[in-house]
Fold this sequence. Notes:
By secondary structure, this protein is an alpha+beta fold. The chain has 20 helices and 20 strands. The longest helix has 28 residues, at 159-186.
Amino acid sequence: MKIVIAEKPSVARELAKVFGATTKKDGYIEGKGYSFTWAFGHLLQLAPPQEYGFIGWRRQHLPMLPKKFKLSVRKVKTKDGFIEDPSVRKQLDIIKKLFDEATEIIVATDAGREGELIFRYIYYYLKCKKPFKRLWISSQTDEAIKEGFRNLKPGTDYDTLFNSAHCRSESDWLVGMNATQALSIAAGNRTVLSLGRVQTPTLAMICSRFIETKNFVPKLFYQLSILLDKDGQQFKALSIANFDKKEDAQVLFDKIQDVSAGFPTGGLIKDVESKPRKEPPPLLHDLSSIQQEANKKKGYTADQTLSILQSLYEGKLISYPRTGSRYIGDDVFAGIPKLIDQLRNHPEFGKSAEFLTTVPLNKRSVNAKKVTDHHAILPTGEPPYHLSSEKQAIYDMIVARMLEAFHKECVKELTKITIESGSTFIANGTVIRSAGWRSVLNDPEDDNKGEESLSLPKVKKEESLPILEKALVEKQTKPKPLYNEASLLKALETSGKEIEDEELRYAMKDSGLGTPATRASIIETLITREYIKREKRNLIPTDKGLAVYEVVKDQAIAQAELTGQWEKRLEEIRSGASVSEFKEEITAYTRTITTQLLGCGVSIAEKATV
DNA sequence: GCAAGGTC
């Protein structure tokens, strides 16, 4: 019997289907000489400190540097504390039995670092010695799966990938467990003060933005505004110049030749500029982008959206949701026309769907090279029934985005009118010439760009128009907004470097903090620790969070760059570089940060433990 | 009691 092990049940089912294996057993599917079994993500984790004899949180244990790490079965939280997850134990027993009977083991966990680790931890925990082969595919279509099975790799080809994954795992344990205990002990052991490679830089981003906002001193400035009239259609224009002093603004304000000052047509049109602007449709959704949209439009937390997505996925209504890709391959694209066709009678999206059946589809979201383990989120085409309003809302966002992504670009006409009256004024207008993808939802535009979507009258250069009103407007500079879940998720993708451009953000996503699948839980961890709280839709630090931030803000553990540095080294390990060298550095760093944190003592004690 | 990673 050949055993195939996948990362999750859905993938095992898919593989079994391709092979025509149909006999459902407890924990695996059998047929055609194969058994297809699965994990549920990581079944094993690095054992906690107490399993190495570090009982209680004590200064003299630190730094805890296990010679050899142990694995333990994933725990689940119950009212009596943490216990071994029984479903995980059961699945491990099933996998063990299958491995014992196996004539060949085929590893079909996701094609990436963590997928490799998920299998290897199981393999070593079960003390399995049989050789294994690796299925390495980046698309789940029947053809890709068949091709992958014809082209299995020797398991040892991925030893260096496992090394890099293993290093990532142990390094996070060493730094996280030691720093957490060190800081907690330093503060008097009254509460858990956790630190980690990902959570601490995230906390630092929230704190530094909060402090920046709090200390922000708004600056007053002045601008002039006029209201013009062209054959009954009125429009507003603003002075190009800003003035720090009111008196300076007043001088030019007095020179405005408005009607009430006795000038019937005091606004001279110096220039009229019209140019079209094309807006391509948005890319399909990945996990992060839909979490952001759901937070902006519905106020759902990243965690809520993830669990809604999980249940839609389990109901077979949408494709795998924990994806970091906003693209699909050509094979998946081939199924899109059918998905769109099914929506022709949809009460809200029927018209858009109907239209799309008559035109060539936009292929901006089609790029097989940008599909990694999983493609962008799509509906499966399975009809949804009786969804709760929350599930319906998320489902509709996925359907709408699909229609938008394959739609035509939106064409706008930008008009800029320059007016002279004592000083120079500008009126900006945007008119949508062809709505394209924007017709799907008809959402008002994101107004954060300060772009006014109003239409301006047709005016001619050199003509003079009456100025009906003038005003001297007092304005003030604004601080950067506090983080909310949407802006934080976006910032985490690029380690706090906020990048507007979607494509550039994608290129940088490998240097982001955390992964799509873990970001929601990072936010929840910081809330559980009482480091941050939700206030309206914002995420703001608590006094405890700020106290921790003050202690660690200049240390490496609070810098997003630490992840970038690790990633660089891990990638070198994957291509064959020495493992021991990196481990020595991590050990040294663990010693350093432990000593530093233990020494911070009193400064944190009162502030963080109230 | 604690990390980050994956998933039901």
